[in-house]
Design brief:
Layout lengths: L2 H9 L5 H13 L3 E7 L8 E6 L3 E9 L4 E11 L3 E9 L2 E8 L4 E5 L9 H14 L1
Antiparallel strand pairs: 1-2, 2-3, 3-4, 5-6, 6-7
Protein name: DUF3908 domain-containing protein
Amino acid sequence: MDQLQFEDLLFKKSYPYVFKEAHQTIKEFYTDFKGFYAKNFFNNKETELYYFLADSVVKVEFNYDPKLETYKFPYKIRQYKSKINRKDLTYADSEVELTLELEDNTIFYFNSKDDSNEKWQESYAENIISIFKVI
């Protein structure tokens, strides 16, 4: 599954509107995508969207309202312009992990098992490998 297939599959689902709105906004702001990752999209942890560009990483953070049990506006877009200093890919059984360290010492950690659910774990593993190859 390539990056576009992964992205399309996620956003065809009926999830909170704020996710789709943020995704559309990012696509309007940036055009040089190399990869996309939706952390915690299918589990009960706070969702974050990551966009990998030619010269940076863009992270979208959302506000979760525990009373309403949903995400709401506003959302925050943060762009990290530091170059990737190190990337480590680890395979463990059916689990794939990717650690990215930027020049400014920011570290991003992606894990196919922790960031998804059992149904999506294989798709997440494929997506992580795809990101590793293109960045």
